[in-house]
């Protein structure tokens, strides 16, 4: 008989995939990672299996195994597979946050309130400034160059915000302190933004306004980047959609209230002073509401080298969904800011023709629009988040919300009067409320590496910066070429529909 020379398992010549090539966990993971695994571990109950009477009959055993295997049932009934963004797919506990902590119900509620209230209070002065107070200030300082100056402020400020968002998001990832890695930057950013906005109230020169707005952008993004990254750090998968919905409701209602406050604030300098005071307090308010962030001075961190720092700023690779989400959000928000940033001028000159009382009439219309948007966006935000959690979908609601915003943008184009603007407030406001409620959960779901959440979310938040540039450039360019704001609306429609198409190309999220 010929000798069998095939390698046998365990002989060193034969590799069993998934068995012989498994890494030694004690060597593959450091102490912090092993502790995180142990926190998620659960003891398994041992079950004693009685001896089967069919053990002596192989044919009987084979028939029984075939009947009990469930193969026929699997073939006949579609088995539900969890989405790729689900914690169940990679065996993470959906009730445990990515930092390894299992928050109590009270802690989750405090985190949700903190996200909602901070988003609300931060959006009020920011939108009041950008939509009404800043255009009004520039109109008084230099009427002839008001459109150009808004475009310059948006463009230069966007570069500052773009860099600061990524830089401070990365620095917060690398920070080790007894207050944690996010808290110090949130407080410091609020103070820088607050002082800068207060000083704008004293400005009498357009270029001084440019410099101070850039400093305000730097402080605002110093606070925003670690603030948003906290959702990835401390919110379990189970609650992320709901918390994102409340966060979106805070943004939407805050932006609406900001426009309303700006429209009724006749004293522009007082408006900037009050807004600066609110920014200065905002970081303290946030960390006071949230459960205290644990100190991380003992957490492992690579040694600081030039190569490590440069690598920390490197955008994620092999992550197409990440970049689709970035482009989609940039275009959607650009469409929003095409109208929002020039809202005072659009109503004053496009709707009322720039007459003698057009400024006062425009402020009245904007106040009514803000009230309408506040109501519909609140309804949209509070309804859409829990529904998205229930159906387990993120991508489709975000795309549909973009389409709804496009429908709203068509109203003032078709009906160039105050009622057209009110229709825009109802339809686009509802769409924008849904979008803000779910988009942040979508962004967190497509993050390629939770350990670099601050940096990656900082890159995604560049959309908030790039959109102001694109929106301002599009609207300013249209006005400079055609001397009318009428074409702003069809261009906005094309931009947000393109955003919806791009969002639907994301593969890793339902």
UniProtKB/TrEMBL annotation:
Mode of membrane association: Multi-pass membrane protein
Entry-linked InterPro entries: MFS, MFS_dom, MFS_trans_sf, Tet-R_TetA/multi-R_MdtG-like
Keyword set includes Signal: no
Cellular component terms per the entry's GO annotation: plasma membrane
Molecular functions per Gene Ontology: transmembrane transporter activity
Gene3D superfamilies hit by this protein: MFS general substrate transporter like domains
Keyword terms: Membrane, Transmembrane, Transmembrane helix
Domain Major facilitator superfamily (MFS) profile, chain residue ranges per copy: 107-507
Name of this chain's protein: Major facilitator superfamily (MFS) profile domain-containing protein
């Amino acid at each position: 008989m010929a000798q069998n020379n095939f390698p046998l398992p365990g002989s060193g010549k034969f590799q069993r995939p998934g068995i012989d090539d498994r890494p030694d966990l004690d060597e593959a993971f450091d102490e912090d990672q092993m502790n995180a695994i142990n926190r998620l571990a659960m003891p398994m109950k041992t079950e004693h299996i009685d001896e089967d009477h069919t053990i002596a009959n192989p044919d009987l055993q084979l028939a029984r195994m075939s009947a009990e295997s469930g193969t026929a049932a699997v073939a006949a009934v579609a088995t539900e597979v969890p989405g790729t963004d689900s914690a169940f797919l990679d065996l993470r506990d959906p009730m445990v946050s990515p930092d390894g902590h299992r928050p109590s119900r009270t802690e989750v509620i405090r985190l949700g309130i903190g996200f909602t209230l901070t988003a609300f209070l931060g959006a009020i002065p920011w939108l009041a400034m950008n939509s009404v107070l800043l255009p009004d200030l520039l109109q008084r300082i230099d009427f002839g160059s008001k459109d150009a100056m808004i475009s310059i402020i948006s463009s230069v400020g966007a570069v500052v915000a773009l860099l600061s968002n990524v830089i401070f998001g990365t620095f917060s990832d690398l920070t080790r302190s007894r207050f944690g890695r996010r808290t110090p930057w949130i407080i410091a950013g609020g103070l820088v933004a607050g002082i800068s906005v207060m000083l704008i109230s004293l400005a009498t020169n357009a270029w001084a306004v440019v410099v101070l707005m850039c400093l305000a952008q730097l402080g605002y993004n110093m606070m925003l980047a670690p603030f948003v990254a906290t959702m990835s750090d401390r919110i379990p998968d189970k609650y992320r959609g709901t918390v994102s919905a409340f966060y979106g409701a805070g943004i939407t209602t805050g932006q609406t209230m900001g426009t309303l406050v700006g429209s009724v604030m006749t004293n522009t300098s007082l408006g900037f002073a009050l807004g600066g005071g609110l920014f200065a307090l905002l970081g303290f308010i946030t960390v006071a509401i949230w459960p205290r962030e644990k100190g991380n001075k003992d957490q492992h961190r690579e040694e600081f080298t030039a190569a490590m720092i440069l690598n920390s700023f490197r955008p994620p690779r092999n992550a197409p969904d990440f970049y689709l989400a970035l482009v989609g959000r940039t275009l959607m928000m650009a469409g929003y800011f095409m109208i929002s940033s020039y809202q005072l001028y659009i109503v004053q000159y496009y709707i009322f023709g720039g007459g003698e009382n057009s400024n006062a009439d425009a402020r009245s219309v904007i106040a009514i629009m803000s009230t309408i948007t506040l109501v519909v966006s609140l309804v949209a935000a509070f309804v859409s988040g829990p529904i998205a959690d229930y159906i387990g979908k993120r991508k489709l609601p975000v795309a549909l919300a973009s389409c709804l915003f496009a429908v709203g943008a068509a109203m003032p184009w078709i009906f160039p009067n105050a009622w057209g603007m009110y229709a825009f407030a109802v339809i686009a406001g509802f769409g924008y409320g849904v979008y803000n409620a779910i988009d942040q959960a979508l962004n967190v779901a497509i993050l390629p590496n939770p350990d670099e959440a601050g940096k990656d979310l900082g890159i995604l938040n560049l959309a908030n910066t790039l959109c102001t540039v694109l929106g301002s450039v599009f609207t300013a360019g249209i006005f400079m070429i055609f001397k009318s704001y009428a074409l702003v609306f069809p261009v906005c429609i094309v931009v947000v529909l393109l955003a919806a198409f791009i969002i639907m190309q994301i593969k890793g999220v339902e």
